[in-house]
Amino acid sequence: MTDETLLSARKLSLSYGMLPALVDVDVDLWPGEMLAVVGESGSGKTTLLNVLSGRLAPDAGAVWYRDPDGHLHDVHAMPAPALRTLHRSDWGFVHQDPRQNLRMNVTAGGNVGERLMAQGARHYGSIREQAIDWLTQVEIDAGRIDDMPRTFSGGMLQRLQIARTLVTHPRLVFMDEPTGSLDVSVQARLLDLIRSLVTRLNIAVVLVTHDIGVARLLAHRIIVMQRGRVVETGLTDQVLDDPQHPYTQLLVSSVLHA
Amino acid sequence: MSQVMLRTTALAKSFTLHLQGGVRIPVLSAIGLDLHSGECIVLSGPSGVGKSTLMRSLYGNYRAESGHILIRHRGEMVDLATADPRTILAVRHETLGYVSQFLRVVPRVPAVDVVAEVPTGRGASQDEARRIATDLLLRLNIPRRLHGLPPATFSGGEQQRVNLARGFIGNHPVLLLDEPTASLDAENRAVVISMINEAKARGTAIIAICHDAEVRDAIADRLFALTPLQDAA
Fold first, then answer.
1. Are residues A4 and A80 in the same domain?
2. pLDDT digits (tens, 9 = 90+) for B144-175
3. Which residue among B16, B62, B86 sits closest to A238, beta carbon to beta carbon?
4. Range(s) of the domain holding residue B77
């Protein structure tokens, strides 16, 4: 158990006009840890994800990332090319809509191989081999490698996005409602897949979800947000089974049990 | 003299229900308990007295309100009442096992992998972990043809035995068992009793909730009685 965080944020604040989206938010993430951010729509959780990943600048506060050599980087003070490099190598981003990340006019294999090529891989045979390996890992038939993503179902597109993201072995992946747009039957399969891949590869994840069942199955720790503030945080099962804050109690008691 | 593995002092727990006008329900107060290695304590008291609440507090599933929960982890006493989440997870990983009344797992994962997850999480190879998990499932009379299926489709008794296998496979030095035999037939109860007694012989310290008198007599070294608290004024 290392004591050094992979990602730390302090006193993040951001307003959209009069509307506070983040108010004094602190976040710590350790290597290999899954952190879920839950809350209803408009609670600021996607804003938090975008600020943590450097895609959106906060009005105040800072985000620090520790690189593999142990050096700390102020994410919002990094030059844009350095941040882009980080997003292409150490980091990954899984969107709710896979079309935001995938190139729909490039083959499935091309989508996976592209991230490797962006990292400098040049050997075609090896890139194709790794693409096949990753398609198999996300349970897409290797025979579909030359097919266009538009011929894929929603669940397959999401798995293709995950293959594209994980092929470069990132240390940190940001996920925005990765199962949000999928049928329930497909969701369970994807959850299982994310869980086993992330555990095996020891990837740290910040996962935004409005589904506390998803948070329970995947996350070690949880952050509950309401109107831009963190109202409760802690061990996932403790926060969900013994919620202290009125809003968390409301959130947990509002879930329908199948 | 055997070592104290778990000690609570002045442990208290109440629930504040904000959605019901902030009503406060006290459940546990001044719980002082010493559990030694190789010992099994069975919690006793009427239904609703807080036995499961105590178990869940000991596991860190419920947040202790005040008092201490000291557990011997890597040779040192760690206070679970104040430990940070990562420390609690490390204690659960190595030291503290828990068999809940109900199995809660990822929907699609086969029974054998539900059980094997504990050893693979500690670095065992998949084959080795599956082999140990298979042996344990067979011992608990889960037929081989079910091992590859997700437990969601199993009967209540079968799910409970998968849960028991998952709880016992880790050989945690401290084990919490919440109604381990509630939906089992006589044959499987006997298997669980012998598994518990073997664990005790290895030095495992156990706290159990168990309404079945026969099982209780077979495993308990002593009883710990909980008494109902007065309702808040």
1. yes
2. 999 999 998 899 899 999 999 999 999 999 99
3. B62
4. 1-13+25-95+173-189+207-233
